[in-house]
Structure formats: structure tokens, C-alpha cells
Amino acid sequence: MTARHPDKHIRAAIAYALEQGWRLTKASGHAHIWGKLSCPLPTRDGCLFNIHSTPSHPQAHAARIRRAVDHCHHGP
Q: Which alpha helices (DSSP H) does 1-76 contain, by range?
């Protein structure tokens, strides 16, 4: 799936997560959720991060995405 979030900072953070082995799924039926990032652990115990479609502070949201990826201890 191609990550084409409207904000360039969030697109870069998504690309970073994908490089680290995370998976992106496009959300459907959620008003404010654009997509979801899942860590490399393929069970329910893995990390999950909701990507907002229009966050009020896109750079801060992108930083939170990177922080979630960096703090995940499940590894690729």
C-alpha cells in the first residue's frame, strides 16, 4: 500500500515506520482516523498507532509516530 497522507511530515514518518518493518492499513469507516500502523509482531500483543487524517499539529503527530516506532521492543 502506498502511503499518501496529505501532510508531508506524516508521510515521512509513515515511510520511516514502514522501513522499520511496521505495516500500514488504511482505515475505513472512521471519521478522523486515516490509517493504522502495526508493529512487526503479528499478534494482538503488538503495538498499534492510529494515524489521524487532519491533526491540529501535524509535525507533533509525525514525531509521535516516530517515537512509537522507536520505543517498540518487538523489532522487525
A: 8-19, 58-71
CA distance 43 to 13: 23
Please name every residue paired with 26 in a beta bridge, in sequence order, or none if there are none.
35
Cell 487532519, residue?
54
What is the per-residue pLDDT across 6-19, written as a single tens digit (0 to 9) for each? 899 999 999 999 99
For the purposes of burial, counting CB atoms within 10 Å of the CB of 42, is it exposed (0-12), middle (13-18) or buried (19 or more)? exposed
What is the C-alpha separation between 58 and 46, in angstroms, rounded? 25
pTM for the full predicted model: 0.88
Separation in Å, CA 63 to CA 28, 29, 51, 68, 70: 24, 25, 12, 9, 10
Q: Do 26 and 35 meet the contact criterion of CB atoms below 8 Å apart?
A: yes
Q: Rounded to an integer, what distance in angstroms lies between the CA atom of residue 49 and that of residue 35?
A: 9
